[in-house]
User: Which sequence fits this backbone?
């Protein structure tokens, strides 16, 4: 962690680094699409898909949007909005679930 | 909306309390706000999932293979975007090495163009998808699925369209020497945001079976 | 200090040039004045609407207004008071004061700031233009689906409302982003976050609430307009849509909105009370953290507006609990204000009277809050005048009284002249008494079962006595507003010259001339303490009057050196106005013809390009 500052200008700005992230993103996407063709129990499928999407989301935000290396303030804005929204989404799904169920 | 308009608003040379650039904070705060906007659209889609009283229903009509390709296209545009930014940054950091500056700038412009092309490609897929759906009888007003689906993906598509125009504007301005790495970075942040929204949409709307 | 005013007015003699300078201004102080004057006009309009409503309700079976017009009036009264009075008047204070309080020369994005004002003006004019067509919005400020559907609200009234609010939302979010970045990034050296005046903190929290709450109503309004304009099914029950979706999205925005409205009032009171108690604010960090806590909790309570919609007992209990939690940080603030006054050398000036009036009435409004949060009680209170009494105590007592105090407090800084204390005290007592006599009895008739939003009531309900009383008192409020206007105008011409620091106050804006020069500070101040100006005057303790002159002389010295400081201010610009005009035309186009809307969008795009290509200032030559 102590070398993080040294990373900021060198490591994350290299083409190879970005391409490696893109390869991981591609593999994750292939895995996602594969779930469409392979029979996976429903109870397992949804958490699996959410985890895969979450990983892709995190990779883009951390490396392509540089949040991993950038000011915590930026992360603060972004994750504050994101957290509120995720909580609202869950709350509303529960509330509407109660209504129809 | 007005982000592009702010291109020359801040005095970059003036120090700020945090040492961070005004416009970059503005961009992130705006993206935080956009999270709630897209979140509201996605939430609406999800609470109305399975509530349509007439067809066509999502399972009958969503084209997973096609959308997988367009998802991949948008994902790769994010790669092109970071490569473009890296080019512009290296060009700015080249100092007196004029040859290196020029070649890096060239790379930056190439990848910027590629980002816009891939973005346009994604929009092409979306137009085709909408066209197909309409042919299968799913209009904006047909049922709740049509309503929530078109409005959500339509607003996302509009954001992609704004992004393409933004990137092309940057590309043109770069030939007049008016584009700093920060300008590309801000356009890039917006672009990646649109990409991550699609990552979520692809999973929640397309992949999770209904 | 009156000399400063004279110099400034002499610079602009021709009226045409003066008007042009206001149109193209990007000076935060002038934009603040524009916000204030505009919101004051809407305050009068919405106030007259309220008085018409009270005329109608003064007697049973009133026949002054027909039910249609009554609906339009209470809708526009609520909508205008929230979006075109409370928020922009708070924005007027933000604009004028934030850069001065943090020691900056302007906001972070001066042109974006002008854009916010013009967009607010465009959106509010768009909505009010509905009166010209006799189609004023009539669905309530809450616009519940599916009353607002094309089926139940044909015509354009709801479209004026929805599109107007969308435009106003753009203005609010743009302004809030601007203030957030200004506060984060333009603080004077040494002005750490925990040295900022409490008012700045309240602005900060308010702005956060705006950028995170408005997208929800933006989405809800887009759904509404899609339903109405393009026939989608978001709120169409027959197609499986659920009107509850509107209520949820609206209140996800609507409850944070309550704090968006009231936190600026908290901030103003937190500046006035210490100044006139001659004590620092009690429990500064507790005040700050309480506001942040209110901001967070504000997002978790929205469904307490919906207890009667049948969410189920678990959901009801959860939202009742989170709502009551808010009483804790609010209570902390209440006790801190009281403790600020306790033991202080209190001067009962007009601003102080308003701040104390705020404290007492807001307490009453605050106490009825937990009553309404209790589900069994709420089931009884819902849609009764008890609720109307409650939120008028919060908004009139919590916000309008504080704003009035703020006007008296900062008027000398803005105009260079004092407002008349004599008229001010008449204004305060008349307004304070009338507002209590108006809104307190509403709790009684509410408990008696009188429903809100209904244009009349029968004679045998036993409500006519209180209603007549309320209506008469309401005209007392109207009279007090006239006294206020009179004071504003008379003092502008004849008020005592104010000097830099007429109140012996504490924060940075009082160290510079009144009115402040265009660039605010000749030299950006160095901050070493909270309440820097007070510290400069008196040090840690209470100094003698002799030390007071220290600041004044230093400012005078700076003023003489003015020529030598090459302060570089951004150029005026008319593009913000043109972008706003384009947006407004695009929104209005959806009411008229789609081609007009496309024209408006094209106009906006062209203006955005022109804006972004226009240099913000002359090429820097000073570095």
Assistant:
């Amino acid at each position: 962690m102590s070398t993080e500052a040294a990373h900021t200008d060198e490591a994350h700005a290299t083409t190879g680094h970005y391409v490696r992230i893109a390869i991981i993103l591609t593999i994750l996407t292939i895995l996602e699409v594969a779930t469409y063709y392979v029979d996976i129990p429903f109870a397992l499928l949804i958490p699996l898909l959410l985890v895969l999407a979450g990983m892709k989301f995190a990779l883009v935000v951390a490396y392509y949007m540089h949040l991993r290396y950038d000011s915590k303030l930026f992360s603060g804005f972004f994750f504050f909005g994101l957290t509120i929204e995720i909580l609202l989404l869950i709350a509303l799904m529960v509330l509407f679930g109660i209504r129809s169920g | 909306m007005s982000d592009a308009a702010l291109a020359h608003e801040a005095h970059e040379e003036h120090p700020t309390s945090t040492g961070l650039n005004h416009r970059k904070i503005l961009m992130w705060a705006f993206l935080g706000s956009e999270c709630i906007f897209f979140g509201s659209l996605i939430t609406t889609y999800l609470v109305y999932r399975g509530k349509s009283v007439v067809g066509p229903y999502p399972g009958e009509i969503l084209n997973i293979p096609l959308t997988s390709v367009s998802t991949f296209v948008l994902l790769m545009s994010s790669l092109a975007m970071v490569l473009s930014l890296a080019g512009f940054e290296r060009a700015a950091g080249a100092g007196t090495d004029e040859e290196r500056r020029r070649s890096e700038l060239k790379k930056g412009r190439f990848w910027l163009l590629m980002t816009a092309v891939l973005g346009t490609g994604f929009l092409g897929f979306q137009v085709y998808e909408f066209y197909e759906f309409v042919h299968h009888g799913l209009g904006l007003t047909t049922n709740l699925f049509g309503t929530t689906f078109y409005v959500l993906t339509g607003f996302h598509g509009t954001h992609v369209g704004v992004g393409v125009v933004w990137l092309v504007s940057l590309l043109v301005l770069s030939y007049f020497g008016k584009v700093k790495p920060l300008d590309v970075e801000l356009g890039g942040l917006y672009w990646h945001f649109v990409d991550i929204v699609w990552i979520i949409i692809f999973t929640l709307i397309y992949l999770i079976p209904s | 200090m009156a000399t400063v005013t004279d110099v400034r007015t002499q610079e602009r003699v021709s009226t045409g040039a003066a008007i042009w300078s206001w149109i193209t201004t990007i000076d935060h102080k002038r934009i603040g004045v524009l916000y204030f004057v505009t919101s004051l006009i809407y305050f009068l309009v919405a106030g007259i609407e309220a008085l018409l409503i009270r005329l109608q309700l003064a007697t049973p079976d009133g026949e002054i207004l027909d039910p249609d017009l009554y609906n339009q009036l209470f809708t526009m009264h609520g909508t205008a008071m929230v979006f075109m009075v409370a928020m922009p008047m708070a924005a007027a204070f933000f604009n004028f004061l934030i850069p001065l309080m943090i020691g900056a020369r302007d906001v972070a994005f001066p042109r974006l700031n002008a854009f916010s004002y013009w967009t607010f003006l465009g959106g509010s004019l768009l909505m009010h233009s509905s009166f010209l067509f006799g189609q004023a919005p009539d669905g309530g400020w809450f616009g519940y689906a599916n009353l607002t559907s094309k089926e139940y609200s044909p015509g354009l009234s709801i479209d004026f409302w929805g599109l107007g609010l969308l435009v106003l939302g753009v203005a609010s979010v743009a302004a809030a982003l601007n203030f957030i970045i200004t506060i984060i990034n333009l603080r004077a050296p040494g002005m750490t976050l925990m040295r900022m005046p409490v008012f700045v903190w309240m602005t900060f929290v308010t702005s956060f609430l705006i950028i995170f709450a408005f997208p929800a109503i933006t989405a809800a309004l887009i759904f509404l307009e899609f339903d109405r304009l393009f026939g989608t099914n978001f709120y169409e029950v027959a197609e499986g849509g659920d009107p509850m979706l509107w209520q949820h999205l609206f209140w996800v925005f609507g409850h944070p909105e309550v704090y968006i409205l009231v936190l600026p009032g908290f901030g103003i009171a937190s500046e006035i009370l210490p100044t006139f108690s001659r004590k620092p604010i009690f429990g500064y960090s507790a005040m700050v953290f309480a506001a942040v806590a209110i901001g967070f909790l504000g997002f978790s309570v929205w469904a307490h507006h919906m207890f009667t919609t049948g969410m189920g007992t678990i959901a009801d209990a959860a939202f009742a609990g989170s709502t009551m939690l808010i009483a804790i940080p609010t209570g902390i603030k209440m006790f801190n204000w009281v403790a600020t006054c306790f033991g202080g050398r209190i001067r009962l000036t007009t601003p102080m009277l308003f701040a104390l009036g705020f404290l007492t009435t807001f307490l009453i409004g605050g106490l009825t809050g937990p009553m309404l949060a209790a589900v069994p009680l709420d089931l009884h209170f819902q849609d009764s005048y008890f609720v109307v009494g409650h939120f008028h105590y919060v908004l009139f007592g919590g916000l309008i009284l504080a704003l009035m105090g703020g006007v008296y407090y900062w008027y000398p800084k803005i105009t260079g002249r004092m407002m008349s204390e004599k008229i001010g005290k008449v204004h305060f007592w008349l307004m304070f008494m009338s507002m209590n006599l108006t809104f307190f009895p509403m709790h009684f008739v509410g408990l008696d079962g009188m429903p809100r939003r209904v244009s009349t009531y029968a004679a045998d309900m036993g409500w006519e006595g209180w209603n007549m009383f309320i209506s008469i008192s309401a005209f007392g409020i109207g009279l007090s507003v006239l006294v206020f206007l009179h004071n504003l105008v008379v003092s502008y011409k004849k008020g005592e010259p104010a000097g830099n620091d007429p109140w012996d106050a504490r924060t940075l804006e009082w160290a510079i001339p009144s009115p402040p020069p265009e660039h605010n500070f000749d030299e950006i101040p160095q901050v070493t303490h909270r309440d820097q100006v007070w510290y400069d005057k008196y040090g840690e303790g209470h100094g003698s009057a002799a030390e007071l002159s220290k600041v004044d002389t230093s400012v005078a010295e700076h003023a003489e050196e003015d020529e030598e400081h090459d302060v570089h201010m951004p150029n005026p610009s008319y593009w913000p106005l043109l972008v706003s005009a384009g947006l407004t035309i695009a929104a209005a186009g959806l009411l008229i013809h789609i081609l007009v809307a496309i024209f408006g969008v094209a106009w906006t795009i062209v203006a955005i390009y022109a804006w972004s290509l226009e240099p913000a200032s002359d090429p820097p030559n000073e570095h």
Remarks:
- The radius of gyration of chain B is 20 Å.
- Residues 3-207 of chain B form a domain with the Four Helix Bundle (Hemerythrin (Met), subunit A) fold (CATH 1.20.120.80).
- The CA atoms of residues 78 and 192 of chain B lie 6 Å apart.
- Chain B has one domain: 3-207.
